[in-house]
Amino acid sequence: MRKYQYFLSLVLIVFGLFACEKINYFEDREAISPSTRILLHKGKGVHPDFQPNSLEGVKYGLAHFDGIEVDISVSKEGTVWLSHNNHMKDKNGNEIELFSKTSDKTIMSIRNEETGYHYDKLEAILKYMSENRSDKFISIDTKRPQLLFTRNEYKAIADAIKRFTKKFDNLKGCILIESDCCYFLDLLKDTDGIETYYSAFGDFDLGVAKAYQNEYSGIVFHYGRKDELSSEMIELVHKKGLKTKITEQLFVPQYPVLQIEKTYVGGRKISISAVKELRYKGSPSFPCNRL
Amino acid sequence: MKVKVMLCILLFIPANVKPQDYSRISFCTGLGNYETLFVGMGWQTGQKNILYLSVGGNLGVSKGQYFNITLEDKFYLLSSTIPRFTLHGKLIYWRYEDSYFEWATLGLTPAIGYTLALSDKWYFEINAGTVFNIQLESERKNYLRAGWHNQTDWNATIKVIYNIQQREK
After folding, report:
1. What pLDDT, on the 0 to 100 scale, is given for residue A285?
2. Does the interface predicted TM-score (ipTM) exceed 0.85?
3. Is B102 in contact with B139 (CB distance < 8 Å)?
4. Which span out of A129-133, A239-243, B62-66 was modeled with the highest average pLDDT?
5. Domain boundary assignment for chain B
6. Which of residues 234-263 of A touch B (CB under 8 A)?
7. Which chain A residues touch B147 with a CB distance below 8 Å?
8. What's the gap in Å between the CA of B144 and the closest CA on chain A?
9. Do B33 and A25 touch (CB under 8 A)?
């Protein structure tokens, strides 16, 4: 009889565990309402006169917008360079070697006198910003580092960014780091003056989950891949204490830097004057905080 | 992800599914925090191996609607003829729907267990392990809440087994 009582108790306990939540719903945090800011992709947008991820392009972007986004890679010595790809290209644009296996001396030697093609260091960009545009923002993208970088390379990049943040003290609060690698973001999330963003690409819920659970500043969201964008989504993110960096392409014929393919403001087209207005007013009908 | 796939493969290596002369069929039912209330069948695929396939649901006990299909490989460490400790590898496909989301997830679960013979035909089993959940798909219904499935979770199961034929002594 006693044996059956034990058995029955066990059954009831396990049955009670049916109620265990399989889904973890996140509690609201102190809501935020950041203003909209526009950052130019690869420093220069689609402007034809500048090389992407170059100091010249960055100067252009910083002069006309709230800030810039740049892509980075790391050399053999651990120096952080601007590059969209992890493969080095020679002066004719042919891929030659992994960035991480190339010395700084070799990278510096690559320069096409005709086209001006070359590589710039991240430090040079931050130095320029610190001296000339310390009110602007820079978003540093590591381009899916878990596929490209080893842990030592992540560490080298994170150490360099921390060093730069300390060196260019007036840029604190203006440096945003975006990545889909939590290991890398974790190295930087507690650094004073740096904001960290989890790159969710098209998966909104994954992005919110990673950013919330790991206590990052926000998410980077590319709408239209898996999920579309709506103002409700942005409001939800803000309720969780997170910011949103949205990748958008804009095109205005009279202003070749921007390219509008699609807008999330009720389908209406955005003119350059509207963009400028949004930059200064942070209109709630344009619910991204960074572009 | 690669680690989880490797784990999944490792879990089912002992299965070694081959038709055997001594194959036995059993029915099972039980409770688990991922299998919930389930019924299923077992096939003895080797002297130390039994494969179970079961379906379960929460029958409305918890808030949302929950359903799962579980494929389980039970491996006797010593012999299947006497009560012994067992190793388990489970693939738990589960779906959960509430007023905010619909989730479909695959749980990879290594577990250890103990099987007790109550009689020649009746067995009682208990096992426990860790679930590593991989999201397969999710569908958001509204923007009222944000959440995510538990990436790792515990799993415990009690199971009553009825062998249609007695095991060979």
Report:
1. 32
2. no
3. yes
4. A129-133
5. 2-163
6. 235-237, 240
7. 23-26, 205, 209
8. 7
9. no
